[in-house]
Each structure stands twice: as C-alpha cells, then as structure tokens.
C-alpha cells in the first residue's frame, strides 16, 4: 500500500491538555535545546543550518560518531552563525555502549531537551537491480518507482559488536535506546517535547517481519528498518504522549547526499543529474538538495506537537518551480503491530543490557 495524502487540517490527535510546547518555551525566553544525530553531513547538517537561521539562540547539540567530521560541521555552522551555541557529543548509534555513554553525558550537561532528531542512518553496500529498473521505467509504476525506490535496491548487512544486524542497530535500535535513556530530559511535567525520525518512503510493510525484526533473512534491511521506525514512532506516541513526548516520522524525498552517492558511481550520478532535475518536474519528492530534504524536519520544529497526526508521515516536497512544502501522508501502520514491535524491542533491550553487564563483569574479574 502507498502513502495517501491527508487533507489539510485533519488531525487524528486532539489533545485536551494544554502543555507548554518548545515554541512556548522560546516565547518564555528560554533557549531551546535541540539534539540531532548524524548531524555532520547531508540532511542532518542542512537541518542544523536551517534551525540556526530560524533561531540562533538555540542550544544545538550535534551527536556524531566521527569527532573530526563533527568538529568540521560545527565550524561550518559557526561561520554562518558566529554566536550560536553548538556543542558536540560523540555518539555511534550502532553501538549500545556508545549510546549509553552519550546519553549519560547529555544528561550531565542538560536538564531539558526540547527536540530530538533521530536522523543518523545507513544503507550499506547497496545494489541496484538494473533489470527491475528498466522494467519499471516503461510501466505504469514508473513514478512510484522513482519516488520510493521500491524493488530496486538490496543491501548487504553486517553484524555489530553487540551481535545485532548493523542496519537495524543504527537506523532503529540505537535510537530506541537513546530515547529511553533520555526520557528524564524529554518527559517533563507541563512541557511538550518532540522526537522526530528521518524515515523514508522506501519503508515498506512487506520488507518487515515481526519474526525477523533485524531482517537477518532478507535483502532489504534499509526498507525494513525504516518501516520499523514508522511503527516505533506510532508506539512512542501511544506510550509517551501522556508524559508530554510526541513522536513524528518524515521522508526527506530523494536527496543527493553521501548515502545516495554510495548507490551508484559518482560519475554516473553526474551523468544522470540533468535527467533527475527533469524528473523533478513530474515528481515533487525529488527534493535533491539537503536544504530541500530538511524541509519537513524544519517544518515540524515549528509546529505544536500536540496538533500533529501520529498516523502520518510528513514528506518534504519541492515543486517544479523549486518551492518547498511539507505534506502529511497516511502511513501503512497499525497499533497492534506497533505495540508488538515495541514489546520486542523492550525484550531485546533487556537482553543486550544483560550481555553488556556480563561483559563488564568478565572484564573486571
Ligand atoms: N538521501 C536520501 O535520499 C534519503 C535519506 N534518508 C535518511 O536521511 C537520513 C540522513 O541521511 P543522508 O543525509 O541522506 O545521508 P548522509 O550519509 O549524508 O548522512 C548520514 C548521517 O548519519 C551518520 N551516521 C551513520 N551511521 C552512524 C552511526 N552509527 N552513528 C552515528 N552517526 C551515524 C553519518 O555520519 P558519518 O559521517 O560518520 O557516516 C551522517 O552524519 C538517514 O536516516 C537516511 O536513511 C531518507 C530518505 C531519503
Ligand atoms: C540507470 C540507473 C540504473 C538508474 C538508477 C536510479 C536509482 C538508483 C534511483 C531511482 C529512485 C531512487 C531512490 C532512492 C535511491 C536511488 C534510486 C533507487 C532511495 C531509495 C534512496 C533512499 C531513500 O530513502 C528513498 C526515499 C529513495 C527513493 C528513490
């Protein structure tokens, strides 16, 4: 099933309680604290630029695995926003130990977090199914294929030091643990806060299985992990809305970043770039630049979280004339599946924590 646009103004969530949103925090003169994972390049870095251009009083935290690249990103942000408060945290979302350590440091440094962007993501060793591409090109599903990449891409996954599938660990599980660890900063009485997932229109129900959460059996771990993040966003809303935490998922569209440049050789992208700009006239999901791709992430930051629809994915779109806008589309998710995933993630969290504890004990002995 594809994602259907939702008519403007219809919101599945109606929240009676009046809470202090992060926008209200800004109005009250408090500088908002925003943390972005995977902020040193692509969509994450463009988002940081846009956030600081909107409000240079923000306390912006870049949580990145590579210290040098993170520092370069910080310097780049300070060039355009010299007075901005930009701090760095070392975080490898693919490692549970790293997530626990980073969360600890964040809790020591801040007593609040207004917005947490779960943006870091990988698509390792992508392979394009050329046959499927040419077949799709001359079918009625050509636009759908260009919008979602459905059926075109497979990836070769690896296993992390925690014994987890790398794509699952990075795109989903590490972020799950991060939210759980940062709960005291995110759930504050009387305040409303946001968790925002960079998902994808490549997320597909048929690529995901509750019996194979980590996608050990299949060849589309990326699609599976993004579908799982849509489910988890819904589950977070069910479990945390009463504590003031609201979760949303977005799709940035097709954006030219390190991730997409990894799919085909760069000379090939250069060759087909004019075609990509041409396709953009027909499909507004070809946002192409990180700035455009960050549109929905930025738009959500300016919304009242209580008014957002937990069943919607917010898409960054760019018109043929280059105008950016955000459109909510209904996700192909349901509560029972989201709840089942949430339960399984809690169980896995328990197992991994025990494993790490045992390793620490063995080390100490
Ligand atoms: N580009 C596109 O067309 C689309 C992208 N997306 C999603 O957008 C998000 C951002 O990707 P994009 O900007 O395109 O690609 P980039 O590769 O430019 O950015 C990915 C970011 O994630 C970071 N990252 C990767 N693995 C880890 C890790 N283990 N720990 C911490 N950080 C990590 C990268 O850091 P490092 O530099 O260290 O690798 C980098 O900063 C991803 O979640 C992606 O799935 C969704 C739909 C379309
Ligand atoms: C002549 C070549 C064989 C052309 C191949 C084009 C494909 C590589 C692209 C067509 C649609 C693209 C696409 C993505 C990757 C590159 C394509 C498959 C994504 C899957 C990238 C990551 C995402 O999350 C999606 C939203 C993208 C959807 C479209």
From TrEMBL:
Pfam family, one: adh_short
InterPro entries: 3KSR/17beta-HSD (IPR052834), HSD17B7/Erg27 (IPR042829), NAD(P)-bd_dom_sf (IPR036291), SDR_fam (IPR002347)
Pathway where this protein functions: Steroid biosynthesis; zymosterol biosynthesis; zymosterol from lanosterol: step 5/6; Steroid biosynthesis; estrogen biosynthesis
GO biological process, one term: estrogen biosynthetic process
Protein name, UniProt field: 3-keto-steroid reductase/17-beta-hydroxysteroid dehydrogenase 7
Family: Belongs to the short-chain dehydrogenases/reductases (SDR) family. ERG27 subfamily.
Membrane topology: Single-pass membrane protein
UniProt EC number: 1.1.1.210, 1.1.1.270, 1.1.1.62
Entry's transmembrane regions: 259-279
Keywords assigned by UniProt, alphabetized: Endoplasmic reticulum, Glycoprotein, Lipid biosynthesis, Lipid metabolism, Membrane, NAD, NADP, Oxidoreductase, Steroid biosynthesis, Transmembrane, Transmembrane helix
Location of the protein in the cell: Endoplasmic reticulum membrane
EC category: oxidoreductase
Subunit structure, as described in the record: Binds to the short form of prolactin receptor.
Parts forming coiled coils: none
Recorded catalytic activity of this chain's protein: 3-dehydro-4alpha-methylzymosterol + NADPH + H(+) = 4alpha-methylzymosterol + NADP(+); a 3beta-hydroxysteroid + NADP(+) = a 3-oxosteroid + NADPH + H(+); 5alpha-cholest-8-en-3-one + NADPH + H(+) = 5alpha-cholest-8-en-3beta-ol + NADP(+); zymosterone + NADPH + H(+) = zymosterol + NADP(+)
GO cellular component, one term: endoplasmic reticulum membrane
């Amino acid at each position: 099933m594809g994602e259907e646009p939702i008519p403007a103004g219809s919101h599945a969530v109606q929240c009676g309680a009046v809470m202090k949103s992060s926008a209200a925090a800004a109005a009250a003169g408090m500088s908002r604290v925003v943390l972005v994972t995977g902020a040193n390049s692509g969509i994450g870095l463009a988002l940081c630029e846009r956030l600081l251009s909107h409000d240079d009083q923000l306390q912006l935290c870049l949580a990145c695995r590579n210290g040098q690249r993170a520092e370069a990103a910080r310097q780049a942000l300070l060039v355009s926003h010299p007075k901005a408060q930009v701090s760095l945290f070392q975080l490898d979302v693919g490692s549970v130990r790293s997530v626990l350590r980073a969360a600890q440091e964040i809790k020591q440094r801040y007593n609040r977090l207004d917005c947490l962007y779960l943006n870091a993501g990988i698509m390792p060793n992508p392979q394009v199914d050329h046959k499927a591409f040419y077949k799709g090109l001359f079918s009625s599903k050509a636009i759908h294929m260009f919008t979602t990449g459905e059926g075109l891409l497979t990836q070769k996954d690896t296993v992390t030091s925690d014994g987890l599938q790398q794509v699952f660990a990075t795109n989903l599980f590490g972020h799950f643990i991060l939210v759980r660890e940062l709960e005291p900063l995110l759930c504050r009485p009387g305040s409303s806060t946001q968790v925002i997932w960079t998902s994808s229109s490549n997320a597909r129900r048929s690529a995901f299985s509750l019996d194979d959460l980590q996608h050990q059996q299949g060849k589309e771990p990326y699609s599976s992990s993004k579908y799982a993040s849509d489910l988890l966003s819904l589950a977070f809303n069910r479990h945390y809305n009463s504590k003031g935490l609201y979760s949303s998922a977005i799709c940035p569209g097709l954006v030219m970043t390190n991730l997409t440049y990894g799919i085909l050789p760069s000379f090939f992208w250069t060759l087909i770039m004019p075609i990509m700009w041409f396709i953009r006239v027909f499909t507004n999901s070809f946002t192409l630049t990180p700035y455009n791709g960050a549109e929905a992430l930025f738009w959500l930051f300016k919304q009242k979280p209580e008014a957002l629809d937990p069943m919607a994915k917010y898409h960054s779109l760019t018109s043929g004339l280059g105008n950016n806008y955000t459109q909510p589309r209904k996700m192909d998710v349901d509560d029972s599946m989201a709840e089942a995933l949430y339960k399984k993630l809690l169980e896995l969290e328990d197992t991994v924590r025990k494993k790490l504890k045992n390793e620490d004990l063995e080390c100490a002995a």
